[in-house]
Amino acid sequence: MTSDEWVAGTMERLSRSTFRSSFTLNAHDAEYARCRGRTTIERHAYEMLTQRVGAAQPYKDGRQTPWHGHPVFTAQHATACCCRGCIERWHHIPRGRELSVQEIDCLSRLVMAWIDRDLARHPAVDTDGSGWALPAGQTTHSAGLSHCPAHHTRDDTGFIQGTLL
Ligand SMILES: [Zn+2]
């Protein structure tokens, strides 16, 4: 099974869960994703999964993932990548050991597949079918946050100051 097949099969499995399929990005987090661009959000996904669920015993495991405040947080709940209990139950990776680079990579792809689909379902512009497209006149600010005023409190890794657990 390739990682693409694993992601597609897991997305299908998740869609049969009422709880997991109840999530959608709020307007603020969707705008943040489009404003920063896919490459940056993908980096955030990898870094956030590494830092928040990657350790053998993650800090505050089970309560470490807010419902929103960053698109990756919501995607983690929707894809059962929110804590090691959910990761064990849904993705069969045992608790109590560090995640491998390959596992974090797979979970990041899953998180990104969910964000791709959610943005495509609620596009900001009705053009090419890519949910990442920004309205005319707006550009992606992958290098900085100066044009994303609502997100000034974020640090470089996408975490929100004060809520980093
Ligand atoms: Zn969880």
3D structure, described in words:
This protein has 165 residues and is mainly alpha-helical. The chain has one domain. The chain has helices at 3-15, 27-36, 38-53, 71-78, 84-91, 101-121. It starts with a helix and ends in a 44-residue tail after the last helix. The relative contact order is 0.19. Zinc ion is lined by residues 82-83, 85-86. Zinc ion (ZN) binds at residues 82-83, 85-86.
Q: State the shape.
A: globular
Helical stretch tally: 6
SS class: mainly alpha
Radius of gyration from the CA trace?
15 Å
Condensed summary:
With 165 residues, this protein is an all-alpha fold. It has one domain.
Task: Name some characteristics of this structure.
165 residues, globular, mainly alpha, 46% helix, 6 helices, binds zinc ion
Secondary structure layout:
Elements (H helix, E strand, L loop, with lengths): L2 H13 L11 H10 L1 H16 L17 H8 L5 H8 L9 H21 L44
Helix pairs in contact: 1-6, 3-6, 4-6
Bound molecules: zinc ion.
